UniProtKB/TrEMBL annotation:
The chain crosses the membrane at residues 7-25, 76-94, 100-119, 131-150, 156-175, 187-217. GO terms for cellular component: plasma membrane. It is a multi-pass membrane protein. This is Probable membrane transporter protein. It comes from Qipengyuania vulgaris. The keyword ATP-binding does not apply. It holds the Pfam family TauE. Belongs to the 4-toluene sulfonate uptake permease (TSUP) (TC 2.A.102) family. Keywords: Cell membrane, Membrane, Transmembrane, Transmembrane helix, Transport.
Length: 262
């Protein structure tokens, strides 16, 4: 992969936009991974480099939300650790199992989440009282973390939906804590991919700086505009992730549909 000023500038611009989107609704990898592939990175290197830049971006969002008092570290330190070890386990399994086995199921879950956000009338910024046990929060973080390490697309959306629907967090608090959990699972995945030599470090650091700036802007926008801006983006990113997964001819659902058309 040959680095030129034009290529680096292109990747920096994409990373900035992806960082902003990721801080608000997740799914920034929809932009960065195709961009890396387009400039000549291998699929494995594109995924590894994306984890590098996105880890810095999500960490920036975490710090921004924390400074505004939006993160309850006492309650979510355990879930963050569960997400970390879950993701490490998922990345380990990834080296031995084809993740394509999940590619047919994930679009259905993402569509279901988009419908949930579109139809739920009381989606707001205030937390609700729920009786979900703390152990369920740990288990949910570990399972979604495992998925993030093993496959990845939509992990942020899964975290946010679980925190809103099951654990009663308001939309902004759910997004803030999603960034904490996502940062933890991203870091675990990054460690595994670095050990495997699948990260373009120089390119990733350029992109990381840009994505951190985008994440800072996105996090502040989320806290300023609340659910009016967040709800549409959550729906759009769920549907965009679904479209990207189904655009792959190898996706089981796409294969069944194409066979049906014949």
């Amino acid at each position: 992969m040959e680095l030129t000023v034009e290529i680096v500038g292109f990747l920096i611009a994409v990373a900035f936009l992806a960082g902003a989107i990721d801080a608000i609704a997740g799914g920034g990898g929809l932009l960065t991974v195709p961009a890396l592939l387009a400039v000549g990175a291998s699929p494995a290197a594109a995924l590894g480099t994306n984890k590098l830049q996105s880890t810095f971006a999500v960490a920036t969002a975490v710090i921004t939300f924390a400074r505004k008092g939006r993160i309850d570290l006492r309650r979510f330190l355990g879930p963050a650790l569960a997400a970390f070890f879950g993701a490490a386990g998922g990345a380990f399994v990834l080296t031995r199992v084809d993740p394509a086995i999940l590619s047919g199921l994930i679009p259905l879950l993402l569509v279901a989440m988009a419908i949930y956000y579109a139809l739920k009338p009381n989606l707001g910024d205030e937390d609700r009282h729920v009786r979900a046990r703390p152990i369920l929060l740990l288990a949910s973080a570990a399972v979604i973390g495992f998925y993030d390490g093993f496959f990845g697309p939509g992990a942020g959306s899964f975290y946010t939906t679980a925190l809103i629907a099951v654990f009663g967090l308001g939309t902004i608090n759910a997004i803030a804590h999603t960034k904490l959990l996502n940062c933890s699972s991203n870091l675990a995945s990054l460690i595994v991919l670095l050990a495997a030599g699948e990260v373009l470090i120089v390119v990733g650091m350029f992109m990381a700086v840009a994505s951190m700036a985008g994440a800072f802007l996105g996090a502040h926008s989320t806290m300023r505009f609340g659910t009016k801006a967040v709800r549409p983006l959550l729906i759009v990113m769920c549907l965009a992730l679904t479209a990207k997964l189904l655009a792959d001819p190898a996706n089981p659902l796409t294969t069944v549909f194409l066979d049906w058309l014949k």
